[in-house]
Design brief:
It contains five helices and eleven strands. By secondary structure, the chain is of the alpha+beta class. A hairpin with a 4-residue loop joins β6 and β7.
Length: 225
């Protein structure tokens, strides 16, 4: 995707209502088909029913303005978190702010709560655009709904050190230029061939890479409408 097309996407991001309308226009797209970051052998990761023992969860995928210029000249980025090595699930991996839904919570409510708890900032300035289809993450047995939002301003953040070892930023330009790379990762006695990409020296793979790949596909479709 060229810079002219990225500039057109920036114009859409500057108008959340227009963005929401176009997003809803592609909501029927078959989820995670043609996603370059999807594993060759999925074991039901993104197809087929999740087991009854799985847990509902949600993550916040939010595009935030890095400056104060507005519109076409704005630089947009997505916050990602490096999970501490001490965490029980997905330790040391790159994730979106998010987690398990509490009883009675909607995915929207859970995503906003986790965003606030992890990044130490309010979600009040985030205009929710919509969501992407649920993705089953078999490694932790979670059915994750990615919620998509656009921020009006860049909030002051104070990440929770218990849940965030480092805050990373993926720019809109980096997102739209993503191409999967392959890397072998050792898990106990197994070696796993993974598809992902490098961001500031960190390997982004698994559900996070798949969700970003899907967001890229959908933004391309919105641009083409």
């Amino acid at each position: 995707m060229g810079f002219e097309a990225i500039d057109q996407i920036k114009r859409i991001l500057a108008d959340p209502e227009k963005f929401r309308e176009r997003w809803q226009g592609i909501v029927s797209r078959r989820a995670y088909r043609g996603n370059l970051f999807a594993p060759k052998v999925s074991y039901g990761r993104h197809r087929g029913p999740a087991p009854r023992s799985s847990h509902a969860a949600a993550v916040m995928m939010v595009l935030l303005p890095q400056g104060s210029r507005g519109g076409l000249d704005e630089d947009w980025s997505i916050p990602l978190t490096l999970r501490p090595a001490s965490m029980s699930d997905h330790a040391g991996q790159i994730s979106f702010p998010g987690g398990r839904c509490e009883p009675g919570e909607t995915p929207h409510q859970a995503a906003c709560r986790e965003y606030t708890e992890e990044l130490g900032c309010t979600s009040d300035g985030v205009e929710m655009v919509g969501s992407m289809p649920e993705l089953y993450v078999y490694a932790s047995r979670h059915r994750v709904v990615p919620m998509l939002g656009v921020g009006s301003t860049m909030p002051a953040m104070s990440p929770n050190e218990q849940e965030v070892a480092k805050l990373l930023w993926l720019s809109l330009e980096q997102l739209m230029m993503l191409r999967p790379e392959s890397r072998t990762i050792r898990r106990s006695a197994m070696q796993v061939e993974t598809l992902g990409f490098w961001l500031d020296g960190h390997w982004v793979w698994g559900a996070t890479a798949i969700m970003l790949g899907e967001l890229k596909i959908r933004l391309e479709r919105i641009h083409g409408r």
